[in-house]
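Reviewers of the previous submission asked for a worked example of the structure-prediction workflow described in the proposal, so we include one complete record here. The input consisted solely of the amino acid sequence. No template or homolog information was supplied to the procedure at any stage.
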Amino acid sequence: MTPNFIVYLQNVVNTYDEAHPHLRWGQTYSSLLNKYVPNLALTVLNTDIDPYYDDRKIPEFIQHIRERWHLYD
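From that input alone, the workflow returned the following structure tokens.
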């Protein structure tokens, strides 16, 4: 079952807290999205809003997935 968007965000924070300094925020957001909603993750993979390698892309990434999350429930 796909967690809701808020649960995803909570899991990002928890995972980052546990993994830091081994993961950056962008890596954490991307990795967990791929784990929980892989088809949604594919819509941002290697695009100009993919935060995996650049944390500055996180705001656009979050907006994109928040607007589309309901399509993947």
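Helices lie at 5-19, 25-36, 38-41, 58-68. We consider this example representative of the routine output the project will generate in years two and three.
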